[in-house]
Specification:
The chain has two domains: about 1-290, BirA Bifunctional Protein, domain 2; about 300-395, Anticodon-binding domain (Rossmann fold, 3-Layer(aba) Sandwich). About 35% of the residues lie in helices and about 25% in strands. The chain has helices at about 5-15, 30-50, 65-70, 70-75, 95-105, 155-170, 195-210, 250-255, 280-290, 315-325, 340-350, 360-365, 380-395; strands at about 15, 25-30, 55, 60, 80-85, 85-90, 115-125, 140-150, 180-185, 215, 225-235, 240-250, 260, 265, 270-280, 305-310, 330-335, 355-360, 365-370, 380.
């Protein structure tokens, strides 16, 4: 239905817009960017807890690096390329070669492994104009990208940890139905068959050890390695491929990444590529359609609106909203000279889950009439309101 399209929801909620001067680009409005930041912070905190160190890599890199990695041969038509004198440089379509450069920036020992690096990497891909679709397909997007440089004996636990992380994150955003596919070597690929045999065996063993019930997807792997793909089902029954983890024995070889083993000999690390959400833009689009704009309380850009019944309660409404903001809630006051029904409707259209009414009686008692979603209104003392709403946020 059209009213469930994330672009329609975004207009109603005042989240973002697009225009002809920036095809495939997003103009984030304050409310939309607030959601974006909440998603990013949720992932950032969980990645930090999982032992990842956040990095930032350059947007523009020399063609020679993209050729060495194999991305130029595979993706050059989708890359934005610039002439710089006699050199060609390209905006990054992905983050992995940059993370290899960080790994290579100093001598590494087996004692440094596993080394976990994460990045909210801003990427650019020259998608065909006819394929662009709101947040679902853009030319500029950010990946919650991460790479693990490790030994073979680390792979099982790293894959298991990723699966636990992914399950917790998806549940937090309201997705419980997740399917898994194991994608194997594509027809066009880098690396010898023996390398792919080893990588595919490694990933299959790790997936089984993690308790995954996966389906085999022949020929759908990345050009440098096999991958597990995690597919969400939304409340309309549609499937969305989001998270991935890949075993890569090719890029460390092509980009000459090495560490010293216990005998001082140089060895190649195994490189795991992982992303929980994939593109943050696309995931936000999926979220909006999954929830119909009625996001979980913790994720709403504005969590509660405090509405005055009449102009006499305007100062009190603003004071209550200020109390909630000090307590760490995202609260706004609606003191417009509008009837209460109009304020309720506007709050609902903006996807604000909490609605607090202050009329003459509430102002006199020092309370508010609170309504959360479809819950019945409840009279709550102003002094207790923040505590009550923070408990809701925690869930």
């Amino acid at each position: 239905m059209e009213d469930q399209d994330h672009r329609v929801i975004a207009r109603r909620m005042d989240l973002f817009h697009q225009q002809e001067e920036g095809p495939g680009m997003i103009f984030w409005h304050p409310r939309g960017f607030a959601i974006y930041q909440l998603i990013e912070e949720e992932i950032r905190e969980r990645m930090r807890a999982a032992g990842f160190q956040e990095v930032r890599t350059p947007q523009l890199l020399d063609r020679a690096l993209w050729e060495a990695s194999g991305h130029w041969q595979k993706f050059s038509e989708e890359m934005f390329v610039f002439e710089d004198g006699t050199q060609q440089r390209a905006l990054k379509p992905m983050n992995c070669p940059g993370h290899v450069q960080i790994f290579k920036s100093r001598l590494r020992s087996f004692r440094d492994l596993p080394l976990r690096l994460s990045e909210f990497g801003a990427c650019m891909r020259n998608e065909p104009s006819g394929a662009l679709l709101g947040l679902m397909r853009t030319r500029a997007f950010v990946q919650d990208d991460a790479h693990i440089f490790c030994l073979e004996e680390h792979v099982e636990e790293e894959v298991a940890q990723f699966c636990r992380l992914l399950k917790a994150v998806y549940a937090r955003f309201g997705f419980e139905d997740v399917k898994v596919g194991l994608s194997t070597r594509p027809e066009q690929r880098a690396g010898e068959d023996a390398v792919w045999d080893r990588a595919e065996d490694m990933l299959a063993v790790a997936a089984t050890a993690a308790g995954l019930d996966y389906r085999l997807q022949p020929g759908e792997g990345a050009f440098y390695g096999p991958k597990l793909e995690f597919v969400l089902r939304d409340n309309k029954g549609r499937s969305w491929q989001c998270g991935t983890i890949q075993v890569d024995l090719v890029l460390p070889e092509r980009l000459d990444a090495a560490f010293a083993d216990s005998d001082g000999k140089q060895r190649r690390p195994i490189m795991l590529h992982q992303a929980v959400l994939g593109s943050i833009e696309r995931f936000l689009g999926v979220l909006l359609e999954h929830h119909g704009g009625n996001l979980p309380f913790w994720l709403a850009p504005d969590q509660v609106v405090v509405a005055s019944v009449g102009p006499e309660q305007a100062a009190y409404a603003e004071a209550v909203a200020a109390d909630l903001s000090v307590a760490g809630l995202r609260a706004v006051a609606d003191i417009r000279h509008e009837r209460l029904g109009k304020k309720v409707m506007d709050a609902r259209n903006l996807g604000i889950p909490g609605f607090a009414v202050v009329g003459p009686e509430e102002a006199a008692r020092g309370s508010v009439a609170l309504r959360l979603g479809k819950a019945a209104s409840a009279d709550i003392l102003r002094s207790d309101l923040a505590t009550h709403l923070l408990q809701v946020t925690a869930t």
